Amino acid sequence: MKKLAIFTATLLSSIFSACGFYPYGEDLRFSFLNQNNFSFQSYSSFYYSALSFEQERNLINPNLDNEKLWRKYCDNKVLLTDISAVLDHFSFSEIHENSANPFLQYLYSKKDIEAINYLKFAKNCEYFNTWQDDPWERNENTADAKRDDLLNKAKILALKSKRTDFKKRYAFLALRLAFYKKDMKSIEKIYSQYFSADKTDDIIDIWALYFKSISENNLALKNLYFAKVFAASPEKRFVSWQYFAPKIQVDEVLNLSQNKKDKANVLLLYGLYNPDKNLENIKQIYNENSKFDGLNFLLYRELQKLENWVFTPYYSLFSVSIMEDFGYDSNDFENRNTLKILERSEIDRQYAKEVLEFIDSVDLTKVENPNFWKFARAELLLMTKNYSESLNQIAELEKVLPSQDPMLNNVEIIKGLNLFANQTFGNAKIPDAAKDIIIKNKNNKQFIFALGRELEYLGNTDDAAFLYASLENPSTENTNYNMVYYKSLKNSSQTYDTYYYNYFDYLDAVYSPEQMQSFINKIKNLNKNQDSFYSNFYSLNQLEINSLYDLLGTKYIRQNKLTLALNTFNKLGEKYFDAQYSLWERDGKDRYNSTGKIFNQNPFYHLKYTPDFIPEKEHFRVNKVSVTRKLIEYLNKANNPKEKDRDYYYFLVANCYYNMSQYGNVWMMRRYYVSSVGNYSIREDNKEFNTAALAKFYYGKAFENAQTDKFKALCLRMQGRCENYNFDFIGENSPNYSQTDNYEDRRFEQNKYYQDLKNKYSDQYEDMISGCESFKAYFKARR
Which residues form the signal peptide (predicted)? Predict the structure, then answer.
């Protein structure tokens, strides 16, 4: 376990070097190869994974070789399950002539005393063939003495036994007892007396070779022996892999191999230790033993790697889930730049082409399971974007695969991906031929997400959003393939933390108002027309549609298209907003609602962290629709040349825009959440949200219409506050940003509004700069 522990510790230390959660590893890795659809369960501990190798605790040896050996001994007249029951579960005392077990009944009926005595002796040895002695080591000496006794008896019984098979069985028990006694010399002596590495006729020979491998001092020979054991015994595969020494040059081991089969066995284990491109190793194994099931598994594992290298970045826009594969630095921000990540995906498609060229050169009549190789070819054609040829290969497979073959499910998934990708930009849709496949696999979130990505890349954002929305179906929460995270092509190294857990947050960040409106229209038409595919697959309920309208109006706010925003909000009505955003009613049923989004202060009269200084002349229930309506009203008054209080209304408008920034009390007019660690975003109003530029503009308009020096000084003071936010935003997003000791002084000196306040309104300067206590008097002095 030492190798596994070191690997895991290294991986985890790199992952958690940054603060907070960031998706990594298996959470990100895209894999369409459902392991249950392929015949590699005996290699299950070695599936490609971000977690390295992990022993499959519930692995049952699918070959049942020892049981089969006993069944052959019983002239095939006893069931394997009955034999397993005795070998795995019976105690010494349960082996008797009155047993109801058919295996024991057979042996007693044949008066096979030698077999019965062997089983009893083996049961006596079981406790001592383990490291699990008394945890307090109180019986250590007793256990060692008993092992010695049993070891000597096993050697005597092996010597006296007249049957070769029982000689080997007793000798094997002696080997195992010597191993747990840590007596390597006895292992060498017993093995050489009863076994040979060149003669491995049955599972007893293989298990004996396992202990011989452990005691072997020649590391190259040790690797050769473990390779033999690994290939022949699924039960011993994980421990053989652990003992294997991959640092020994492969040629040293191959030179000791006496035949092509042994060479293929050796190459298999070296291939499993390679997390990088393994094509040359696969080619070598093909040349040595093309019928080897280990060759098929390595090809399967190479497909798993390529899915990670090609599909993980292509669909998720995250770096490959196992960055160590190619020497990725997890702290290198360039690797988080989505365009760089996609470039990497394209490079790996070239490697997929190399693997495809190898498969095309293979004589499929010489490999085990040619249909699997054809499937691999179909997926590699998908990876290399040869969609038409991939579909042709899939059509051939569909003709020859039995209807109950589980691999058909994976064939259909690859077919669906091909059908979606094999369309032109601007003309993409959900193909009719893929609809049954989608419904059948609607719980496979990675598959559905990938289909959505293909449509989004091809310009069909309506159906892409629909597929994304279906991932929120509560019925799929506890199914496999449950992890998907959203990222955008707009992401850069500055947006390290910008990823999204659900489709709503993704649409919030990425979709334009026009795309949102189109998606809403699509959903409404679907609900009206009752399209059979859409209704069978997923239906958005009215609460979700209301949330989408809410989002659409919010996007118009971000663009400062207030009339469009108000028209959209009006479609939802006052009751919706009272339930979602009002201080008076906190029990909104919408899943995106939280008390953190409650409007609890009027944004025209109150500023966050500032003592109230403006009399609240109008009282109204504050929510998105009322704020938007009032903002339009105040802007109309402020822009009206006949209005005598233009400066007043401009100041209220500026307050509202200020409060809609991250520094205000109605930030929820623009956002659905804010973060304490920064709000850099790919949303189109990112700068406005972080700098309150519109507030600064309208404080300036209030200044232009002001009639007293005190009110002008107050307007400059508020402009200066917004300007400081602008400095912060520019500085924090500069690669050379650092807050030195004189940072505040430098920021003040560069703030032209504060300098204007100092130079032009020197009498008011100290009052304005020293704090906010004088704001009330200065606002009152407006007239």
Answer: 1-18
Q: What is the model's pLDDT at position 723? A: 95
pLDDT tens digit string along 391-413? 999 999 999 999 999 999 999 99
Query: Mean of the per-residue pLDDT values for the chain?
Result: 88
Alpha carbon distance 319, 421 (integer Å): 21
Distance of alpha carbon 636 from alpha carbon 648, whole angstroms: 13
CA 703 to CA 778: how far, in whole Å?
A: 13
Q: Locate the DSSP E strands across 614-733.
A: none
Of 530, 531, 581, 527, the closest CA to residue 553 belongs to: 581
Q: What φ, ψ does residue 471 adopt, rounded to 5°? A: -70, -15
CA distances to 600, 604, 660 from 608, rounded to whole Å, are 11, 11, 11
User: Tokens representing 298?
Assistant: 């390595």
CB of 170 within 8 A of CB of 161?
Answer: yes
Q: Nearest Cα to 121, choosing from 95, 83, 99?
A: 95
Structure tokens that stand for 549 in this block: 């309208």
The answer to whether 359 and 287 are in contact (CB under 8 A) is no
Question: In the chain, helix, strand, coil percent, each to 5?
Answer: 65, 0, 35
d(CA 347, CA 344): 5
Contacts for 658 with CB less than 8 Å, ≥ 6 apart: 603, 607, 664, 692, 695, 718, 722
CA end-to-end span of the chain, whole Å? 81
Residue entry with tokens 């709000």: 679
Number of residues that this document lists for the chain: 783
Cα 52 to Cα 28, 39, 55, 293: the distances in Å are 15, 21, 10, 22
Separation of alpha carbons 601 and 17, rounded Å: 40
Contact (Cβ atoms closer than 8 angstroms) between residue 753 and residue 723: yes
φ and ψ at residue 582, rounded to 5 degrees:
-85, 150
Under the phi-then-psi rule, with left for phi > 0, alpha for psi from -120 to 50, and beta for the rest, what region is 775? Answer: alpha
Q: Kindly report, residue by residue over 337-393, the tens digit of the pLDDT.
A: 677 788 889 999 999 999 999 999 999 999 999 999 999 999 999 999 999 999 999
Least Cα distance to 578 among 548, 599, 551 occurs for: 599
d(CA 312, CA 342): 10
Residue 767 near residue 774, CB atoms below 8 Å: yes
Alpha-carbon span 569 to 317, nearest angstrom? 33
Using one digit for the tens of pLDDT, what is the confidence trace for 295-344?
Answer: 999 999 999 999 999 999 999 988 876 654 444 444 444 445 677 788 88
Residue with tokens 């109180």: 138
Q: Reduced to 3 states, what is the DSSP secondary structure of residue 331? A: coil
Write out 423-438 in H/E/C secondary structure.
CCCCCCCCCHHHHHHH
| 8 A C-beta contact, residue 702 and residue 691 | no
DSSP assignment of 130-188 equals SS---TT-TTHHHHHHHHHHHHHHHHHHHHH-SSHHHHHHHHHHHHHHHHHTT-HHHHH
Q: What is the DSSP letter of 458?
A: T
Does the pLDDT value for residue 52 go beyond 80?
no
225 close to 209: Cβ distance less than 8 angstroms: yes
DSSP 669: G
Give the number of C-alpha atoms closer than 13 A to the C-alpha of residue 244, restricted to the C-beta side.
30
Write out the H or E segment, with its range, that includes residue 782. none
pLDDT at position 734 = 55
Residue whose entry in the numeric block shows the structure tokens 């009505």: 573
Concatenating the DSSP letter of every residue in 356-424 gives HHHHHHS-GGGSS-HHHHHHHHHHHHHHTT-HHHHHHHHHHHHHHS-TT-THHHHHHHHHHHHHHHSS-
Helix, strand, or coil here: 599?
strand
| Residue 556 token pair | 């118009």
Contact 561/591 with Cβ under 8 angstroms? no
Inter-axis angle of helices 293-306 and 338-361, to 10 degrees? 160
